[in-house]
Every structure is written in structure tokens, then in C-alpha cells.
Design goal:
Layout (H helix, E strand, L loop, with lengths): L4 H6 L2 H7 L9 H6 L8 H15 L1 H9 L7 H4 L5 H9 L7 H18 L17 H11 L4 H24 L4 H13 L20 H17 L3 E4 L5 E5 L8 E7 L13 H15 L7 E7 L12 H6 L18 H7 L17 E9 L4 H5 L3 E7 L1 E10 L3 E2 L11 H19 L3 E3 L3 E2 L7 E2 L2 E10 L2 H22 L2 E10 L2 E2 L2 H13 L6 E4 L4 H5 L5 E6 L16 H20 L1
Helix pairs in contact: 4-10, 5-10, 8-9, 11-13, 11-21, 13-21, 17-18, 19-21
């Protein structure tokens, strides 16, 4: 019979420790210390209590815990001395049925890993869905993590141990993240659509109005119909729009959603998570035959990434009346204009102005999105509440000095353009760190026609600066430009700067942000407020209505725009639960 939180909360300490036996390999002290935080609101609350215990314990107990784990397909498996939990996990991943070649490869990886780090390789082999990773995935992860820094790899091992404990906890309590699994499965199925040249390599690429893009739109629209949306359409820019009507036809709508296009060779969850989480919530309302005082409008935005054409946010921009007719003449790499692509897709360009929404008809816009960064992953917290989408500026620049002979020009007589930019890059790092949550990047750095034996006479570079408020961003930009001038003067250089982009910050609406905060806390998840360094569709809707965002944790350091982008179905379930809680708050307010 499955364990319940009520039983765990009511049990004496000795009994409770026994009930939680086996979560951490040969380490019952972790669960025992966590029990001091009873009563637990949820399994997520219990899990984080154990995360905190191990974090506070320090390095040596963490290393002892890692070393208590068996090697994958190692001696303990061969000798049948694994714990029952480890046997089950390695069996589900197929590690108990390795070919001789696979076994030899894993043994070599085990030896190399132990030689480098001094502890066994730890991986939650049941994976982000809980059903088991493929052996090829395990071996590839093993090989990749061999190159990590030792401190990072110790932390990554601990994160995987907590994921193992989470899955074991689910088993003990008979808990299945059913809706999270559905959201995970939707994303896996949608990722089957990819463009030629990438699909053959197993890579995901879906750019605006390609065949793969249009197939995604069709599949999302069909799923929306299955979920019980009342109205579904693919609009004049390719957005997939589903509306679930309010109880009273005069009711307003809550607008939500995210984008379904991807970068080239990207991840499966960027954008798409924000479509499927609210879809799961609508499906549950439909199954219950329940209507809310307000309607729910879910939009799968057709374009956000700016991959095929220079124009970006075509999907969300159209909803606020920001679609410029001159964009129609932009050409992609094959010379196909945006107008031609839209006509080929059967979209009615003349109807684009009709897509503009009246903010008076909406309660606001909320968006769920994978974090695309390392913060939640490093804190081992599943959800984060966004305080603001950073405002940013981008410059395309050139530093100009004098090209001269690298052997004959004394160091104190040089006008080295590259060194001037290098000095600026270090200053930008230092300046951004002063604010804590500002970021500054020189992402492009090139010496045109550079030679190994020539002092660089020119250096082309970019500057990208972002901060949670426009004032904070502008102060940093002013300091960086002043430093650029000072460096050029001191080094006898000249420079050119061209402002390439300027986007205003989009602070979250306090009322909507509070709804997310209430939802997160109700789930027993720690409340972490954080800015978004990346741009999102929410920043476009922010121009006409209040908005607020929720982040979900990413695996693999939260990497995004990358095939390694990942999150778990347990975290997706928490996102669905948080979204449902927001709906309940709005319905009773």
C-alpha cells in the first residue's frame, strides 16, 4: 500500500525514518534530518527539505554519499550486491543487459571517471520521464561529463542523486506526475517535426513557415481540439490560437502561451512548454465540465526566434499591432521573401491588422517558460518567479588603430585595436558584476584580415548589455561607453559604434507576479524571484497589458538553444499545478 503524507507527518521519528528508507544509498541520516521540517505540504516540500540538508552538510558528507553509490554496470551489478532500488533503476535503463562491447566501454568510462574525480559517476538513469534512459544516452552523458570541472561535477552528481531520490519518493508514495508526463510527451511528439538537413541527423530545427513549422501548427491545433477548446484557428501570421470560453459570454479572457518555432539544432522545450502547460489545464477543466468566470486563450506563437527572417516576435507582435509591411520584402537564405512564404502557407496577409487585441478584453498575459539558464538548476529549485524581463541594447562596433610589424614595433609604441577591445571586455565584466543582475557580453570579436605577425589595426566587435530595469541598463551603458572613450584616448585609438537594437525592460505586473508567488508557495516549493535575461513573447504583450512569467528548472546547467536542453516531467507537473492554482485564484478573486 502506498505511503501518504498524512502517515509520514503523523509518524514518530524512528518510524518516519524507516518509511523513507532507501531514498539515498546507505544514508538514512538525510531523510532523518529533513523530518525536522514536518509537516510537509507536498512531496516537493519533502524533497527540497532533503536538498537543504545535504547542502548544509558540506563537502565531505556529499563526497561520502556519492561514494556510497555503485558504479553503473559495475562490480556490484555483476556480483548482485546492488540495493533493490539500484537494481531496479539499472535494469530499467537496460544496463543489466549490455553487450560485451557496451560493457567494456562503460568499464573504461568508469575507470577514466574515477581516475579524474575520485568518485563514481552518478546519473539518474531513469531519466527526466522516469521510464529509463537509452544506453546510448547514458554512455554519451558519461563521456561528456568527463570533461567537467571537478567542483561542478561533484555538484552535478549531487543533483542527480536528488533526482534519483525524487523518483524513489514517487515510487514509495505511488505518485505519478500524470499531467507532467502528458506535457513531456506532447513535446517529444512535436519534436518529430524537423527540417531537412537537420531531421536526418536527429536535430530539431523548426523555422518560420517551413513544412516542419506548418506540421507543428497542425498538430498543436489538433491537440487543442482534443483538449476541449471551443475555438481553434491558425491565424494570419501562423499563430495557433485556442479559446476556452468563460462561464458568461461577457467575461474577459486570460491570455497565455509561447512560441513553437526553434533555433537551428535547438531544444524541445524552449517556448513549447508554455503552450502545453496551459493546454493541460484547459483539458482538465473540460474533463470536469467546468467553466471559469473568465476565458482562457492559449496562443502558440508562430515566430519568436528570428531564424529565417530578420524580423522577430512576428507572432506576438501581430497581437499588439506591431507588424511592419516592409518586413514582407525581407528574404531568407534561399531568396524567398516573407510575403512569398506567407502566401505559400495560405496565410491571408490582408487580415494581419485584424489580429490586434484590445487589452480591455483581457485580464493580462502569463507565460510559463524553461529558464534557459543555470540558476534554478544550481539551487536545485524547480520553479522561479520572474520579476522582470531584462531590457537590453546591442551595438555593432569597430576599434581602429594602426597595423604594424609584430616583431619591430615596441610594446609602448603600438596602437593595438584588439588590445583596446580586450581591455573593454574586462571592464564590461567588472561593471556588470557591480549590479549583480546586470549582464554584459562581447559576443563577436574579430580582427579583419588578421595575420599572426601583424599588430591588429582594426577590431570588429559587438556589445550586448542587459538589466532588469531600463535605468539600470542605461547607467551601465553610459559607463561602458565612457570607458570605451577613455581606452581609445589612452591607447591612441579611434572607434565607431552603431546601435543595433534597444528593447525596454518588461517588469512583471505586481498583481500577476503575486499570483505566481502564491501558487509556488502553496505547492511547498521555495519561492525564488529572479529576472529573465532572455527575451520572451511576454515582453511584447507587456506593451499593451500586464504580464508575469513563471520559470521551470532546466537540466544540464539549464542549457538552452541546444539539444541538451531538458527538464523533468515532475517539474512540468509542478508548472501545471502552479498554473492551475493561478486560475483558481483569479476565479475566486
Amino acid at each position: 500500500m502506498a505511503l501518504t503524507l498524512e502517515q509520514l507527518n503523523a509518524a514518530d521519528t524512528a518510524t518516519a525514518v524507516q518509511l523513507l528508507d532507501g531514498l539515498y544509498e546507505h544514508s538514512p541520516w538525510i531523510a532523518e534530518a529533513a523530518l525536522a521540517q514536518r509537516p510537509f505540504k507536498s512531496l516537493a516540500h519533502l524533497k527540497h527539505a532533503m536538498v537543504q540538508v545535504l547542502e548544509k552538510a558540506g563537502v565531505q558528507p556529499q563526497l561520502d554519499l556519492i561514494r556510497a553509490h555503485p558504479e553503473l554496470a559495475g562490480k556490484a551489478m555483476v556480483s548482485n550486491t546492488l540495493t533493490a532500488e539500484s537494481t531496479n533503476e539499472q535494469n530499467k535503463a537496460g544496463l543489466t543487459a549490455c553487450t560485451p562491447e557496451e560493457f567494456a566501454q562503460i568499464q573504461q568510462l568508469n575507470a577514466d571517471y574515477n581516475a579524474r574525480f575520485g568518485f563514481p559517476f552518478i546519473l539518474a538513469v531513469r531519466g527526466p520521464r522516469g521510464t529509463g534512459l537509452l544506453k546510448q544516452e547514458i554512455i554519451a552523458t558519461f563521456a561528456r561529463r568527463l570533461h567537467n570541472h571537478p567542483d561542478y561535477e561533484r555538484a552535478e552528481a549531487i543533483r542527480n542523486i536528488h533526482r534519483i531520490a525524487e523518483i524513489r519518493l514517487n515510487d514509495k508514495f505511488g505518485y505519478e506526475p500524470t499531467l507532467g508526463n502528458d506535457v513531456w510527451d506532447w513535446q517529444e511528439k512535436l519534436a518529430q517535426h524537423s527540417e531537412p538537413g537537420y531531421a536526418e541527423k536527429g536535430q530539431l530545427t523548426v523555422t518560420y513557415l517551413t513544412d516542419a513549422h506548418r506540421a507543428c501548427a497542425q498538430r498543436i491545433s489538433h491537440w487543442m481540439r482534443d483538449c476541449g477548446f471551443d475555438d481553434i484557428e491558425i491565424d494570419a501570421v501562423g499563430n495557433v490560437v485556442g479559446r476556452y470560453h468563460p462561464a458568461d459570454k461577457s467575461g474577459k479572457y486570460l491570455l497565455t502561451g509561447s512560441h513553437y518555432d526553434t533555433v537551428r539544432n535547438g531544444g524541445k522545450y524552449d517556448g513549447r512548454l508554455g503552450i502545453f502547460v496551459p493546454m493541460a489545464c484547459v483539458r482538465e477543466l473540460h474533463r470536469q465540465g467546468k467553466r471559469l468566470p473568465f476565458g482562457i486563450e492559449v496562443v502558440g506563437f508562430a515566430e519568436e526566434e528570428g531564424q529565417r527572417y530578420k524580423a522577430t516576435f512576428l507572432g506576438s507582435g501581430a497581437l499588439i499591432g506591431d507588424f511592419k509591411t516592409e518586413w514582407l520584402d525581407q528574404k531568407d537564405a534561399d531568396g524567398i521573401t516573407l510575403r512569398e512564404a506567407m502566401q505559400h502557407a495560405g496565410l491571408c496577409i490582408d487580415d494581419i491588422p485584424k489580429l490586434q487585441r484590445d487589452a480591455a478584453d483581457y485580464l493580462g498575459f502569463i507565460e510559463v517558460h524553461i529558464e534557459q539558464g543555470p540558476v534554478l538548476n544550481e539551487f536545485d529549485i524547480p520553479l522561479g518567479v520572474v520579476t522582470s524581463i531584462n531590457g537590453g541594447v546591442r551595438y555593432v562596433c569597430e576599434m581602429i588603430g594602426t597595423a604594424s610589424h609584430a616583431g619591430t614595433t615596441p610594446m609602448n609604441r603600438r596602437r593595438d585595436a584588439a588590445l583596446g577591445v580586450a581591455e573593454l571586455a574586462l571592464y564590461m565584466e567588472e561593471r556588470a558584476l557591480q549590479d549583480g543582475d546586470s549582464v554584459a557580453t562581447i559576443g563577436m570579436l574579430q580582427v579583419p584580415n588578421g595575420s599572426i605577425n601583424v599588430v591588429p589595426g582594426k577590431c570588429a566587435f559587438s556589445m550586448d548589455m542587459r538589466a532588469p530595469t531600463d535605468a539600470q541598463r542605461d547607467a551601465m551603458v553610459a559607463d561602458v561607453l565612457a570607458q570605451l572613450e577613455a581606452i581609445a584616448q589612452r591607447r591612441g585609438l579611434q572607434y565607431k559604434t552603431e546601435l543595433a537594437m534597444k528593447a525596454a525592460a518588461a517588469p512583471s505586473a505586481p498583481a500577476l507576479q503575486t499570483l505566481w508567488e502564491n501558487a509556488v508557495q502553496a505547492l511547498g516549493v521555495p519561492l525564488l524571484r529572479m529576472p529573465s535575461g532572455a527575451g520572451h513573447d511576454a515582453m511584447k504583450l507587456h506593451e499593451i497589458m500586464p504580464q508575469a512569467m513563471l520559470f521551470t528548472r532546466g537540466l544540464n546547467s539549464g542549457i538552452s538553444h541546444n539539444p541538451l536542453e531538458a527538464t523533468t516531467s515532475d517539474d512540468m507537473q509542478l508548472a501545471v499545478d502552479a498554473f492551475s492554482h493561478v486560475l483558481q485564484q483569479l476565479a475566486t478573486s
